Amino acid sequence: MTDCIFCRIAQGDIPCERVYEDDDVLAFSDLSPQAPVHVLIIPKRHIQSAQTLTEADEQMLCRLFAAARRIAA
Predict the structure, then answer these.
(1) Distance CA 58, CA 16 (A)
(2) Which of 44, 45, 11 is nearest to 27 (CA)?
(3) Which of 23, 36, 21 lies closest to 67 in space, CA to CA?
(4) Are 30 and 38 in contact (CB under 8 A)?
(5) Comparing C-alpha atoms, which of 42, 38, 39, 40 is closest to residue 60?
(6) How many angstroms from the chain centroid is the CA of residue 23?
(7) Lowest CB count within 10 Å: 9, 22, 28, 41, which one?
(8) 61 Cβ partners below 8 Å, 6+ apart?
(9) Residues 6 or more apart from 37 whose CB is under 8 A from it?
(10) What pTM, to 2 d.p., does this model score?
(11) Dist. CA 11–CA 44, nearest whole Å
């Protein structure tokens, strides 16, 4: 999706300070942090809303939370 800012960041069209990356997930520093450490963790694939998630997204969601755990440590 080209009008989604997060998709554009994940595709590399918009530069970011990457903190973590794997096949499904990208984590990067927020440009306007609201805390001393403020990292955004996003799926690399566009997801319209939580209502559109299916069982096929289970691995991606697990990786997203695993990334959060790694970054927090």
Answers:
(1) 26
(2) 44
(3) 21
(4) yes
(5) 42
(6) 11
(7) 22
(8) 53
(9) none
(10) 0.88
(11) 8
* pLDDT over threshold 70, residue 29: yes
Q: Strand pairing partners for 39?
A: 29
Beta strand ranges found along the chain (DSSP E): 18-21, 25-29, 39-43
CA distance 44 to 29: 15
The answer to whether residues 60 and 45 touch, using CB atoms and an 8 Å cutoff, is: yes
- Two structure tokens written together for 7: 């998709």
Give the pair of three-digit tokens for residue 30.
């927020």
pLDDT mean across residues, the chain: 94
Q: Taking residues 3-22, report their average pLDDT.
A: 95
